[in-house]
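Subject: LuxR family transcriptional regulator structure
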Amino acid sequence: MAIRVLLVDDQPLLRTGFRMILEAEQDLAVVGEAGDGLQALEQVRALQPDVVLMDIRMPRMDGVEATRQITGPGRDGPAKVLVLTTFDLDEYVVEALRAGASGFLLKDAPAVELVQAIRVVAGGEAMLAPSITRRLLDKYAGHLPSGEESVPDTLGTLTEREVEVLKLVARGLSNAEIAADLFVSETTVKTHVGHVLTKLGLRDRVQAAVYAYESGLVRPGAGG
């Protein structure tokens, strides 16, 4: 089954370029296009894509709000959102990640990265590396809680090892790196990550990283 992709960008030329890149891949199928967030919502309902390639700054409804409505609480649909941005340090990207995006990619990324990102997101993983997410969160630390707030009750549902894994996810480590750090198998790490996401009601590693910051488990700017 090909991965169904919806292209959302207010620039037709960019959409055409993305379509040409994606349709050259046998496992990817562009099922539709939208020029703004409102059209994106309509197309998601009508076409049921697996991945939405979402621009952030668009007329009528921006990509952040569209992402929130596509992936927010109570939405059990299959669509994952991969945000496209012109700048790698953009506060709107942080808001999109909070809203439920599975990651982000620069618009000038090589075609091979775009294709790989879509495959990764469709598979339920985060894109790009959580370390980039962390850099964004560090950059916009002023938008996040200070960490002095009370720790959410949901953190108490995690085991000590799951808390360790969550901290390492927030630091940007891959499953393989976490496995090496904790001296366990990569399969065990995947199991722990799955338990963390399920217990905290999170969609993917990106939301887990955001949660770790917002809960005060990891402090913006703190090393390690």
